[in-house]
Amino acid sequence: MSLEEIIGSLAAVLTTTSFLPQAVHVLRTRDTQAISLTMYTLFTVGITLWGVYGLMTNQPSIIAANGITVVLAGLILCLKIRDVLAAKRKAGA
Prior knowledge:
By secondary structure, this protein is mainly α. 87% of the residues lie in helices and 0% in strands. The protein has three helices and no strands. Helix 1 packs parallel to helix 3 (60-92) and helix 2 packs antiparallel against helix 3.
């Protein structure tokens, strides 16, 4: 394994691991009130694009890390969208 692959793998593990506590908390509590819809949308699209980049350049550490993160971020984004829509329905009722 080259130095570049080691650094890339370490970066992937650290960034994905740093996201896990927030993701676990939101998924357990289902509380998305403090989360910005715009930020999570941009974050999820960005992570998806990083995953595509990893696929296009054949970089397994980028593919794996962003694959895991996009699933978690996507779940949280879906919860946030659900909450935003529910609040709009409630406000309009």
